[in-house]
Amino acid sequence: MKNRFRLYLLRYIMLLTALLLGACQPAQPPAKIHDGAEILWDTWGIPHIVARQDNDAFYAFGWAQMRSHADLLLKLYAIARGRGAEFFGENYLAADRSTRLLGIPSLAEQWHEQQDTDFKRNLIAFSTGINDFARQHPELISDTVKAILPVTPQDVIAHTTRVMTVFIAGISECGAVLPGFDFSDQPAASNGWALGANYSGSGNTMLLVNPHLDWGGLETFYEAHIVLPQVNLYGAALVGSPVLQIAFNDYLGWTHTVNPMDGCDLYHMKLTGDVLDDGYWLDGVKQSFSVTTETIQIRQSDDNVASEAFLIRRARQGPIIEHAGQILAVRLALLETPLLANMNRQWWEMGNAANLDAFQKILQGGHLPLFNVIYADVDKHIMLSFNGIIPVRNFGDTAFWRKPVTGDDSRLIWTETHSYHNLPKSINPASGWVQNSNGAPWYMTMPFLDKNNYPSNLAADVTNNRELRGLQMLNAHQRMSYAELITAKHSTRALVADQLLDDLMASAHTSGESSLQQAADVLNHWDRQYLAESRGALLFSVWFEKWAERTITKTIEADANYVFLPEQLLGDLFYAQPFTPSEPLISPRGLADKSLAVSALRDAVDELRASANELDMPWGDIARLRRNGVDLPGNGSSTELGVFREIVYEKDEDGKFKSSSGDSYIAIVEFSQPVRAQVLTAYGNATQDSIFEMGDQLQLTADQKLRPAWRTLEEIEENLAMHEHLIPNSSINQNREPVAR
């Protein structure tokens, strides 16, 4: 009875919120009902947080993340302190060194002091929610992570800083020299579309949210819903973030895609002597490194703790690292300016915006270190803004800056970053849509932007077959309905098959080899899809991998200095007609070397037969969606094959392939009245055993289905799994902060 009464009170709060928002008037707080916040947990494990004050919502968000991901969250915070090895052993030592080298813990201390009063209280509330959950539910937390407690606001800032630094390093040359800061074998990727009123079948703008990240670790998404008197906000954040980073409200929404910006440079330092202590040359003048020493604790296998004195040298360009016999300085733009200090606040303000003007004013702060911002709103506006903390480099193109530049010329030490106004963007284009799937910014709509209007070192001039497949689907419609948008999002058609398969089959048939003719017949009957039932997809995947490997090997044999870059997959090494921006819908196409392709097909046939796999084995028999004991037939494939529905598989112990990255959080949003949305967190919303099943959304992933986003109290009540009423302790109101151990 008591809980039911509280639900009625919550209904009043949410109704009042809806009325205030719907009237487009400044929201007034409801009459005081009770202190704290409510979390209504639905049957998918999504927390619906209802609060009167921002800091109460932050408190509840910290609490909710602990219930769903306590062990993961605390582990990530320990690593962000540069203390992973202290708690988890020597495997984390390299990451600790990089974290300390870049000064992330000390920056977090500085940036915490720079927060404005209100947002500092929010960060305190978030960390207090984490600590209070740990104190009240110790049975839900592993013993191995309890020593990390308590969490501080500085931990939150350090973690979100480290995550963004990993992203920046991972898409640049810096990832190769910073151990623990490189992505897994599959780099972060994403699809994002915004459809305008003149392209949408309903006349309402629509938004496709579709990041592709690793299915674990610091790239794990957490789906949540936050209701305050002034906003009804739904979206997702990476675990450990205090704010939703991709979200929509009743007025607008946005998603992010990883953009090919360069936010990190390497400098080849010229020493003045034989050892580092002698210093380095800069503009013909001898300079000394600044030197500090930090102590890193390392847990041993017997649980004893050893210590390492870690020496950190810093030049004008940045911290020094020895790599492959070179002395390099690392310069990361997001760590060299104070802009990142307000990153989390900017995301929170974006979620509270109500129109394009307000949203753009927030973006002008320039606090997000990377990502395209793809936007749609109820006022029929769409936008794509290429975004990031990007250095202003006075000369040199992307190829020049991709390699280590000389460290003895101060003209190469950039100090400024590009403003929001100078970065590429498209607002309400004539095409009726904007899109990005990790390509260069000039491909965001059609006709393409003129890349000559931007500095040649702003972004790499790249695209990929997944993006070209998206452009095909967008151009195939004069208008696109909501249902068609969902269908396009799940498309598993392999664009590479359309580009190359006819040449390959013809060459295989003319070879006169029966095994190759049989393979050609299998490929001829293949539907060119990566559905669970698709026969021939496995053969094509194995052929493609061997064809790419043989092509690269052939090139290296001819030129020992050749370095393969992913964007070259669309070039003349592989295709008879390489990608041409003037023909994006029909290029690239045709095999550059048909005999090499046939040889790769022969190898693919031999490999499948040797492993007792049939040439026409259904894709879902070998590609499996696996997580926490769930094992389902897979669908989708990788960017390289031009599949829009990206799910990447890696070899498992039984010889099959398990899902490891790709489609993560998905949302299809239509800005109708009311807003409607379908969503999915592909691998589920928890890694922690609780009242929710881990990986419970994986069946929907297998079925290529989404679920409705429940945003009204009636919907939530009908699907309620648990209800919590939280009353934060007095430390938030008194602005006291947790003290780290």
TrEMBL record:
<dbReference type="GO" id="GO:0017000">
    <property type="term" value="P:antibiotic biosynthetic process"/>
</dbReference>
<keyword id="KW-0378">Hydrolase</keyword>
<keyword id="KW-0865">Zymogen</keyword>
<dbReference type="InterPro" id="IPR023343">
    <property type="entry name" value="Penicillin_amidase_dom1"/>
</dbReference>
<dbReference type="InterPro" id="IPR043147">
    <property type="entry name" value="Penicillin_amidase_A-knob"/>
</dbReference>
<comment type="similarity">
    <text>Belongs to the peptidase S45 family.</text>
</comment>
<feature type="binding site">
    <location>
        <position position="262"/>
    </location>
    <ligand>
        <name>Ca(2+)</name>
    </ligand>
</feature>
<dbReference type="InterPro" id="IPR014395">
    <property type="entry name" value="Pen/GL7ACA/AHL_acylase"/>
</dbReference>
<dbReference type="InterPro" id="IPR029055">
    <property type="entry name" value="Ntn_hydrolases_N"/>
</dbReference>
<dbReference type="GO" id="GO:0046872">
    <property type="term" value="F:metal ion binding"/>
</dbReference>
<keyword id="KW-0106">Calcium</keyword>
<keyword id="KW-0732">Signal</keyword>
<feature type="active site" description="Nucleophile">
    <location>
        <position position="190"/>
    </location>
</feature>
<protein>
    <submittedName>
        <fullName>Acyl-homoserine-lactone acylase</fullName>
    </submittedName>
</protein>
<keyword id="KW-0479">Metal-binding</keyword>
<dbReference type="InterPro" id="IPR043146">
    <property type="entry name" value="Penicillin_amidase_N_B-knob"/>
</dbReference>
<feature type="signal peptide">
    <location>
        <begin position="1"/>
        <end position="27"/>
    </location>
</feature>
<feature type="binding site">
    <location>
        <position position="265"/>
    </location>
    <ligand>
        <name>Ca(2+)</name>
    </ligand>
</feature>
<dbReference type="Pfam" id="PF01804">
    <property type="entry name" value="Penicil_amidase"/>
</dbReference>
<dbReference type="GO" id="GO:0016811">
    <property type="term" value="F:hydrolase activity, acting on carbon-nitrogen (but not peptide) bonds, in linear amides"/>
</dbReference>
<dbReference type="InterPro" id="IPR002692">
    <property type="entry name" value="S45"/>
</dbReference>
